[in-house]
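INFO  loader      accepted 1 record
INFO  loader      residues=90
INFO  predictor   begin
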Amino acid sequence: MARLIGQNVGLPWLLPLALTFLRDSAPRQAAGGWFDDDLLSAVLTRKADVWSASPGLAREADGILSVLTDLSPYVQRDIRRFRATLPASD
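INFO  predictor   done
INFO  writer      dumping tokens
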């Protein structure tokens, strides 16, 4: 799934599935378990127009990020870039 998302294939279908997986696995990661950084990075590095076309998915992704801890510096960089693309909240 990470590879397809990284290639922008089937994003309308795969992004919701990826977010469901990430949301479901986030509590385990927060408790000290392993986390799929590849999928998270693939999701976070989509272009800003993907997120502006799907603001609900962008909010969901941002909410998942609040649970995650101890992420690699590379993923932290992806998070900063992703959050910079989000529209300001009303």
